[in-house]
Structure formats: structure tokens, C-alpha cells
Amino acid sequence: MISVLFAILTALSNGAASVLQRRAALAVPDTKAMRLSLIGHLLRQKVWLAGIGLVIVAAVCQAVALATGPIAVVQPIFVIELPAALLLAGIVMRVRVPGGVWYGVAAVTVGLALGMTSAAPGGGSTSVQGAVWVPALILTGIFEAALITGAMKTRGNPRAALLGLAAACGYSLTAALMKDAMGRLGDDGVTALMTSWQLYATAAAGVGALFLLQNALQAGTLVAVQPMLTLGDALISVLYGVTLFGEELRTGWWLLPELVAIALIALGCIELSRSPLASGNAVPPRRSTRVT
User: What is the pLDDT of residues 48-107, one digit of tens each?
Assistant: First the structure.
């Protein structure tokens, strides 16, 4: 229950941060794409800094969630981050939530519930054993290089989608490294945590994923980025959980409802990403004035 609670808190923080970062990225010129000057430009925007603050809160909550539960349970819960953020944005901005948002929320919620029930993830170890990280890091590096190379050969939404998937892979790797580091904390104490390479690799992977996400948001629409980010993070994290930590999922005929769940989540994310609340362009209704 603790891992689920903190996973939900992580999703709430990340969802709100994603919307704020998208608003900031819209003001960045195309000439800043894939350059370090992109971050310098964003640092001058208060809305982006607010988003980073929420990212830090999410990182702390995620560490607690991963330390107390399997990665295949924690990471898929993050698919609720966009629906939760949009509903909160509607309340804070006093904007009527469009009907499409409610359909999207329903699709994502039902998809998550169906997927978790069907897959029933569990088991596994708290840390990675032996040299299993070596092939995992090599394959991850090749996958990331292919996505980034493909993204640089195109523009607009195709680039945004590829960079969104690359960011998702980076965030999944960050989660796997974080779980491994937190597992060493539980086994051998603070000294083992502070001297583990996984702790510092977590920070490096997180920064890299953040950089890729900013470029994805700058390159195209949220409709192109968010489904790749949300589903990519969940699915790649589950893959890390199974291959690195020995976590278990149901297979066989259970794959059918699991695929239905993925389709529902994808459709829900697309519908939610089209909402003006996601782009930050929603306008609160004007108060009517009456002349007496």
C-alpha cells in the first residue's frame, strides 16, 4: 500500500510538471533544439522552474515507492499522471473540464485497472544480482542512439514522438537504477548507497531523460509526445523489472486483456493530450457584469 500511495503522489507531481514544462517549451525557438542553450532559455522562465520543483518532489516520492514495491507495480501507475494533472488544472484554473477529458480519464483508469489485474505483477528481488547491468546498459544505449538518430532526421510530431519514447526509456532506466540503489540502502545501509555507482547513474540518467523530454515537447504537440512517454515508460519499466529484478507477470491468455488495456491507455492519452488544458491554453470563463 505504501508503494502504491507514493506512486500515485509521484504521478500527480509528474503530470502537473509535464503540463508546466510544455507551456515553457512552446516559447523556445527551433534553433535551440538539441542544444544546451535550450536549458538556459528555460531556466529564465518561472513556469518551467515550477515544473522542475514538482519533478524533484516526484523523484523523492518515486524513491520511496520503488524502495517498497516492485518496479512492475510502481511504474505503470504513472499512467494516471496526465488525467490527474488535467483534472487538477481544470479546478485550479476554474475551467469547465471538456467531455473528451472525462472520456480520456475513464479510458486510462479502466485500462490501468484491467492491465494491473491481468498482469498481476509481483515478486522479484530488491536489487540486481551479478553483472546483469552490463548487457542491459549496452542494449539501452543502442536503443536510445537509434531513437535520437531517427529523430534528428525528421521534424515536427515524428521527431517529438521519437524523442518522447527516448525520454521514456531514460526515465525507465532512471527508475531501475533508483530501485537498485534503494535496495542496497535497505540491505547494507547508507554507506552502501553512497558508494554505489547506481546512485550517481540515476542522477545522470534522470538529467538525460529530462533533456530529451524538453526537446520532445519543443519539437511537436503533446498529442505526439504524451502517449509515447506514458506507455513507453510503463512498458520499458516492466521489461526492466522482469529482466533485471526477476519480477513476474501473467502470460498465456492473459496477454489478450493486457493488450486491450494498453490500447485503452493509448486512446485515453491521445484524447487527453488534445485538450486545451494539456497545452495550457484553456481560458477561464469571464465573469458577467451587470449594469445597474
Answer: 787 788 888 888 898 889 888 888 888 888 888 778 777 766 765 667 777 788 888 899
Going by C-beta distance under 8 Å and a sequence separation of 6 or more, which residues neighbour residue 112? Answer: 76, 77, 79, 80, 261, 265
Distance (Å, whole) CA 17 – CA 98: 21
Q: Which residues contact 45 (CB under 8 A, 6 or more apart)?
A: 24, 27
Q: What is the pLDDT of residues 167-180, one digit of tens each?
A: 999 999 999 999 99
Report the C-alpha gap between 229 and 218 in whole angstroms. Answer: 14
Find cell 551479478 and name the residue. Answer: 130
- Please tell me which of 22-31, 66-75, 199-208 the model is most confident about, judged by mean pLDDT: 199-208
Q: Which three cell numbers stand for residue 36?
A: 544546451
- Span 254-282, pLDDT tens digits: 999 999 999 999 898 888 878 776 655 55
Residue with cell 494491473: 116
Q: Show the cell assigned to 250.
A: 501473467
Task: Please name which of 229, 226, 179 lies closest in space to residue 209, comparing C-alpha atoms.
Answer: 229
Alpha helices in 122-155 (DSSP H): 133-152
Cell 491507455, residue located: 265
* Three-point CA angle 209, 213, 214, nearest 5°: 120
Amino acid at 52: I
In the block, residue with C-alpha cell 519539437: 219
Task: Give dist(CA 225, CA 215) in Å, integer.
Answer: 10
Burial status of residue 115 (CB atoms within 10 A of its CB: 0-12, 13-18, 19 or more): buried
Phi, psi of 248, rounded to the nearest 5 degrees: -120, 145
Beta-carbon neighbour count of residue 283 at 10 Å?
8
Answer for the pair 269, 13: CB distance below 8 angstroms, yes or no: no
- Grid cell listed for 157: 510530431
| The overall pTM is greater than 0.85 | no
